[in-house]
TrEMBL record, chain A:
Organism the protein comes from: Rhizobium jaguaris
Membrane topology: Multi-pass membrane protein
Chief place where the protein resides: membrane
Protein name as it appears in the record: Branched-chain amino acid ABC transporter permease
A GO biological process held by the record: L-valine transmembrane transport
Family that this chain belongs to: Belongs to the AzlC family.
Subcellular location: Cell membrane
InterPro entries per the UniProt record, alphabetical: Brnchd-chn_aa_trnsp_permease
Transmembrane stretches, start-end: 12-31, 67-87, 127-155, 161-178, 185-202, 208-225
Any one cellular-component term (Gene Ontology): plasma membrane
Annotated keywords: Cell membrane, Membrane, Transmembrane, Transmembrane helix, Transport
From TrEMBL, chain B:
Family annotation (Pfam families): AzlD (PF05437)
Protein name: AzlD family protein
Record flagged with keyword Transmembrane: yes
Transmembrane keyword on record: yes
Originating organism: Rhizobium jaguaris
Domain of life: Bacteria
UniProt-listed InterPro entries: Brnchd-chn_aa_trnsp_AzlD
Spans traversing the lipid bilayer: 6-30, 42-63, 69-97
Keywords annotated in UniProt: Membrane, Transmembrane, Transmembrane helix
Length: 240, 103
């Protein structure tokens, strides 16, 4: 059972690993461009393991920003993980403490989305499945960061090969995968407005925390939806 | 090439630690609660869409027409087809736009 679950996890992780790999390579190339060494950027991908915040981090390294401000910015971008770890708790109660330690270390956006999806479709969320899925995302991410750093100068401007469009489209795909949820449209509209305004007047990376807070606060403030929830979430489509 | 600057390494570990704290923080908070009130649950359900929207919206608003059109096309594709088709649609449209309309 453990082995079958592990392989099912590996299989489920393939599209995510494939989608993340170019960004790993892109991170490596950009980090090299900002003056990080190959060892440093690989260490960062292996220990921080959070795409968007790694990008924010290297962007700030290049601007000689004070260390505490960089760490605070990374915290702001990653703050959403507090809510992720709260949301998946109900599905991983049966994990051992050591398993939980690794579970939370590996909790990135697609890992969260697929864990919730699996839990809501009543399939067992086992540690073997979780680890299989994570392996397919983590290993390509770290390896491709290294390769991207190695090839850095060869990639050149990511715009000329259309790489810059993939990250926003990728996140957009995950967003619309949740479109059957209660209050989806009001939440998305609130987050869009708040993040766009914050981006303009407060600056990056605060637009992430401010925009997310606006959407979540609205969801909490709206009257609770008394819907007869069918397992429609099982049809949500956010593998990539 | 593979040298490690002590300050950089310290910074990377600090980034790793704060990231890990965010990843376990919600678990610690939630296990201290005996039951989840409906509004907290509604808030938790809104988390993924609310957060990921903030990574999408600025890209759309500050991006040029190439980005805006490609993202709109990808959105339409994503409503009907798989996320992979959506990614390819966005990429094809942006490359076509840049090729024919100039960057």
């Amino acid at each position: 059972m453990g082995r079958a679950d592990f392989f099912e996890g590996l299989k489920g992780g393939i599209p995510v690993g494939l989608a993340a790999a170019p960004f790993g390579a892109l991170f490596g190339a950009l980090a090299r461009d900002q003056g990080m060494s190959l060892g440093e950027l690989t260490l960062m991908s292996g220990t921080v393991y959070a795409g968007a915040s790694q990008m924010v981090g290297i962007d700030l390294f290049g601007h000689n920003v004070q260390a505490w401000l960089i760490v605070l910015s990374i915290l702001a971008v990653n703050f959403r993980h507090v809510l992720y770890s709260a949301a998946i708790t109900r599905y991983i109660r049966h994990f051992s403490p050591v398993q939980k330690f690794f579970t939370f270390f590996l909790l990135v956006d697609p890992q969260f989305a697929d864990t919730v999806k699996r839990g809501e479709s009543r399939k067992p969320v086992t540690f073997a499945w979780y680890l299989g899925f994570a392996a397919m995302v983590y290993i390509p991410w770290v390896v491709l960061s290294f390769v991207g750093g190695l090839l850095g100068s060869l990639i050149g401007d990511p715009r000329t090969i259309g790489l810059d469009i993939l990250l926003p489209v990728y996140f957009l795909g995950i967003v619309i995968g949740f479109r059957k949820r209660d209050n989806f449209l009001p939440v998305v509209i609130a987050s869009t407005a708040a993040s766009a305004i914050a981006y303009r007047y407060v600056g990056s990376p605060w637009h992430v925390s401010i925009g997310a807070l606006a959407g979540v606060a609205l969801a909490a403030a709206l009257p609770p939806v008394k819907s007869n929830r069918k397992p429609d979430l099982a049809t949500e489509n956010h593998e990539v | 090439m593979t040298d490690f600057d002590p300050h950089m390494v310290l910074l990377i570990f600090a980034a790793a630690v704060v990231t890990y704290l965010t990843r376990i923080g919600g678990y610690i908070l939630i296990t201290k609660m005996t039951r989840i009130p409906p509004r907290v649950e509604a808030a938790l359900n809104a988390v993924p869409a609310a957060v990921l929207t903030t990574l999408v919206a600025p890209a759309f608003f500050i991006g040029g027409w190439d980005t805006k059109v490609a993202m709109a096309a990808a959105l339409l594709a994503g409503l009907r087809f798989s996320p992979t088709v959506m990614l390819i649609t966005g990429w094809v449209v942006v490359m076509a736009w840049r090729h024919f309309a100039g960057i």
